[in-house]
Amino acid sequence: MGEGASTAGSATRVAVVGAAGRMGRLVLDCVLDHPSLVLTDAFVRSGSPALGADCATLADRPPCGTPTRTIGHTDADVVIDFSLPAGLAALLDVLDGPALVTGTTGLGPELEARRDAYAERAPVLAAANFSTGVSLLLSLVRTAAAALPHADLEVVEMHHRHKRDAPSGTALALAGAAAAARGVDIAGVVTHGRDGNSEPRPIGQIGIHALRGGDVVGEHTVWLALDGERLQLGHAASDRTTFARGAVRAAAWVAGRAPGRYSMGDVLGLTSS
Ligand code: NAD
Is 159 labeled as catalytic in the residue annotation? Predict the structure, then answer.
């Protein structure tokens, strides 16, 4: 697959949502550095101290002449969203055609359905984790879960103390990928943060466990435990710039494509479609 669908020869216009956040600032920096992307809008929440600031200064760069504003209409070709569920909901209220790259997690079924409905009108690439390593880990977990259908599978994740949603979207994606590879519905087999005196572990159960503390950027381990041996597949992010770079790469790739859902696997050539 090519690196950009429709914008050869002209710059792809990008808007960033959640621009004052940890991820948003890094995304701004990557967009401003990118040779074929041009930043047109940066959205922050109403009441943000960063509202009206020159957006480049949020990335510790010299002013670029674009002040931040609250979410509204954009002429961008692609919108990159790293905000909170309320930010994505507000964005979906106004979005009318641009491609959407979103990394916001903790959405809930209703907001997921709204995001997926937007994919009927525009290309949408949603990923709980934009790192190259986790995209590959998803593929490895699918293979291992199917190859070892009776292994006890547990997902353990750790993130910094500021993270709001638990478990992480990446942990849910890993568990969901394992369940799908085994041909079962994750809702029927998952258990969260095991506790108390209950029955022994049921065959086929998938456990998810969330640790929170310090400044951990994001670590995920998938355990497949058998009698006499266990397999661990894991990923550790040491710098969240890896997520920003992945999202910006995805934005350059997805702009101008046909409406529908796309994945980081598509961007990285890890899927067969
Ligand atoms: P953060 O709290 O630092 O930033 C979120 C920003 O969104 C804040 O500045 C907040 O003011 C802003 N926001 C909230 N509501 C808004 C609205 N209505 N309009 C505009 N802006 C609004 O959080 P973060 O660490 O940057 O993470 C943001 C999201 O991205 C979280 O859901 C996190 O789990 C997710 N995340 C995803 C990946 C990935 O690779 N997919 C990686 C890291 C974080």
Answer: yes
